[in-house]
Each structure stands twice: as structure tokens, then as C-alpha cells.
Specification:
Helices cover 32% and strands 16% of the residues. With 421 residues, it is α+β, with helices and mostly antiparallel strands. Helix 2 (36-48) packs antiparallel against helix 3, helix 2 crosses helix 5 (130-138) and helix 8 crosses helix 9 (204-220). Residues 1-21 form the signal peptide.
């Protein structure tokens, strides 16, 4: 090859290389991403490595824009996450499109990886809780904490807290009717009583209330709290029932307080109002907040719809609702969904089934912090029962229900000055 031709060829390569290897796009639309859940893990990993990440709200399903780096490419390849390489020009073209007033899109800068805590009893397996399961699958690090850590102000170390499917009322999940003779129930009741005594409380209900108040203070002080299934309504009920004995003798050894329903202070609840507690200890239910026993819908038609928000003016709910579909398959739990008539007007309903008058996915503010409640047990196990086999997320790498959980995990990483609501 003549020297002049070789020189021009090398010059073209040198000119083109820097413009090509500038950004990595993790597309999150339905057709382009082979593993949506692990894409969140890549994003968290990049933040943890101090890379700057942008969340492109409503752009191709809520895609992520990362700087190009060999270790990010390698990590995507190892984890099976689809990615696209963009030049400066291509990235700027996308950002210009997003910034246009005519587009319902927004760019949110993610600053640093949030520190994550999962409130869960010691010895629980990952598949006992959907959040623990998906965090493990997405390879997002978290710390399991329980009552001792919470009561000793351990929450101060974390930005984001998930509540396990826990009963904060001291009624042991209302499992008495079906499982009071089961060895696991007897053992868990014994362990809870021993822990309460160790921590200086005479009753489990009193100890759980103290834990709930610490979690409340964590949120008021600026923390982000996410709860699913029975941790949603039982947490709210415990706070509203402070100073009132709502537990029957099989739970705490003495009679419940007379006319306790009239003594419930709904002002202390995060999300719910005017609910009626379930007094019967045999009934597997806490109150009429939950719609499980009031639902009238066939499994094959059980879906809920995500709300559509202005990404530029309402980035908070927009972030929490990022997905590749607005129609999400429903799933059940001890607390499957929330009666719309029981939700406070200050709480935002982000996912609902209007036919059933039920909310599935709600969000609110408390003090300086925020909370999100998601009804149901496992987004890919329609009617999970005690003892059922664990969900294998390798079979559901594009689960829109699990994406909602992971939206909440990344949410605290957003640059605060970008939030307008």
C-alpha cells in the first residue's frame, strides 16, 4: 500500500475512533433488551464504580446512558445485558430529542449507588421475598437487618429500606387459623417472643411497634422506604394502633382492648384511612384495606395499569413507573391490593385496576422522605403459597412487575435538584 494511502487510512481511523467509543446505552424497550432486570444491576454497579449515569425517562422504556468503558462493556457481556455503543453525536442527538418541550421525556442524573437494607428475619431464604430475590438476581448488594439493628439506630447507615412480608401488629401474620399447629409457626412465634424479651419488651406487639416507629422516623428524616404485601397495611395499622391492644389472647396472652376500633388514630398511618380491622383471629386478614377477599376477577384477566406522568414536571412518579409496558400482570399475596376508598388523598396512586376499584402501586411523602407500597407477594408467581417452590428469575428476565421494584431501588440515586415534585 502506498504511503500516502496508508497515511489517509490511519488518519480516518484516528478521527473516527474517539467519536464512536463515547457512550453505552442500555436500551429498556421490549424488543431490544434481553435482560431488563440485570440492566438495573449494571447501572447500580456503574454508579458504585463512580461512573456518571443518566436515566432517560420514557426514552425506549426508560433506558440508561453510561460512559463507554471496557469494564462496563465486559460486565454487560458477562451478565447478558444488551447494550449499544453511541458516538458523541448520537448521544447528543438523543439528549436533544429528550429535552424538546414536545417530548414527554426527561434526563435524570444518577449520582451515587444508594446503600440498601432489607428488613428480614435471620435465616430467611432469598425466595421468601421478591425484593431479596430480584436484588440477588440483579447482583445489587444489600444488607439484611432486623429488629436489633433497627432499634439500635442502624437505619442511619442506609438510604433505602425494604420491608419484608412482615406483621408489625404482633399477630404473627394472622397465620393462626391455618397453621397454628405447624412446627414452623410454633417455632417462629417462640423466636419472636424470645427476641422481644431480649430487647426489653413484654409483648411482641410492643416490640414491633417500637420497630415501626424507628422505621417511621427513618422516612421522616429523609429515607426511602419500599414495602410489599402484608408489610404495607400491617405497618400502617401498627402505627395507628399505638397504645391500643388489638391482639387476641392466642397472640399476646391477654384479651384485646374493648371497642379498640374506635381508638385507632388514622392520622398516624402513612397511606390509609377509615379502615376496619379484622377482629376474628381465625381470618387470614388484617383489615378491609386489602382487596384479596373482595376481588371479582379471573386470573387470566388480572392486570393493572401504570399511570402516565409528565416526565419533565413529575419526574418522581415517572421514575417509579418506568417500564416497557403500561399493562402489568396482577399477582396475589396476603395483601394483594388496596381498596381505593381506603387510600388517603395525599397518596399518589401509580398503578390501579379501575374495574375492581383497587390500587396496586402507590407512593407518598412523609417528612423529608418517601415511601412506596406495592401490593402482592411475587410478580411472577400469581398465587404464592407457603412452601411453594422459589421463582426462577432466569425464566423472567424481562418481568415488568419486577422492574417496578428495581425502579424504587435506583430512585434514591437521582440528583435531588432535578426533582420538581
Amino acid at each position: 500500500m502506498p504511503f500516502r494511502k496508508l497515511f489517509h487510512t490511519l488518519l480516518l481511523l484516528l478521527i473516527s475512533m474517539p467519536s464512536w467509543a463515547s457512550f453505552i446505552l442500555l436500551p429498556m424497550d421490549e424488543s431490544s433488551q434481553q435482560n431488563h432486570l440485570k440492566a438495573y444491576g449494571i447501572t447500580y454497579w456503574s454508579l458504585d464504580k463512580h461512573y456518571k449515569v443518566s436515566w432517560l425517562l420514557n426514552y425506549r422504556g426508560g433506558s440508561f446512558l453510561l460512559p463507554d468503558a471496557p469494564e462496563i462493556r465486559k460486565e454487560c457481556q458477562i451478565r447478558g445485558v444488551s447494550f449499544e455503543l453511541l458516538s458523541d453525536g448520537q448521544a447528543n442527538q438523543i439528549l436533544d430529542e429528550i429535552s424538546s418541550p414536545s417530548q414527554n421525556m426527561e434526563t435524570v442524573v444518577l449520582e451515587k449507588a444508594p446503600k440498601i437494607a432489607v428488613y428480614t428475619p435471620k435465616g430467611k431464604q432469598p425466595w421468601d421475598d421478591a425484593v431479596t430475590l430480584v436484588l440477588t438476581y440483579a447482583e445489587i448488594p444489600f444488607t439484611a437487618i432486623y429488629d436489633e439493628e433497627v432499634l439500635s439506630d442502624g437505619l442511619l447507615l442506609y438510604d433505602w429500606l425494604h420491608l419484608h412480608h412482615e406483621d408489625f401488629t404482633g399477630q404473627y401474620g394472622k397465620f393462626f387459623g391455618a397453621y397454628r399447629n405447624a412446627p414452623w409457626y410454633i417455632e417462629q412465634k417462640k423466636e419472636a417472643e424470645e427476641l422481644a424479651k431480649k430487647l426489653g419488651y413484654s409483648k411482641v406487639s410492643e416490640e414491633k411497634l417500637a420497630v415501626a416507629k424507628k422505621i417511621r422516623d427513618f422516612v421522616i428524616g429523609g429515607g426511602f422506604m419500599f414495602a410489599m404485601c402484608s408489610a404495607t397495611d400491617s405497618f400502617d395499622i401498627a402505627l395507628a394502633a399505638e397504645g391500643v391492644d388489638i391482639c387476641e389472647p392466642m397472640f399476646d396472652g391477654d384479651e384485646s382492648e374493648g371497642n379498640y376500633q374506635s381508638k385507632i388514630d388514622y392520622n398516624n398511618s402513612f397511606a390509609f384511612k377509615d379502615y376496619i380491622l379484622e377482629r376474628n383471629p381465625i381470618v387470614y386478614e388484617f383489615s378491609d384495606i386489602d382487596m384479596t377477599q373482595k376481588r371479582n376477577i379471573m386470573p387470566e384477566k388480572d392486570y393493572f395499569t401504570l399511570m402516565d406522568y409528565s416526565a419533565k414536571w413529575d419526574p418522581i412518579p415517572s421514575m417509579l413507573c418506568q417500564n416497557h409496558t403500561q399493562l402489568i400482570k396482577g399477582f396475589m399475596g396476603q395483601t394483594t391490593s388496596f381498596d381505593s376508598d381506603r387510600i388517603k388523598s395525599s397518596v399518589l396512586v401509580m398503578g390501579e385496576n379501575k374495574v375492581n376499584n383497587e390500587a396496586r402501586y402507590i407512593h407518598g411523602t412523609k417528612g423529608k422522605g418517601m415511601f412506596t407500597y406495592f401490593g402482592g407477594h411475587d410478580p411472577e408467581d400469581y398465587q404464592h403459597r407457603v412452601g411453594d417452590a422459589p421463582t426462577v428469575l432466569d425464566l423472567h428476565p424481562n418481568s415488568p412487575g419486577y422492574r417496578l421494584i428495581l425502579n424504587n431501588v435506583l430512585f434514591p440515586a437521582a440528583r435531588k435538584k432535578k426533582l420538581k415534585t
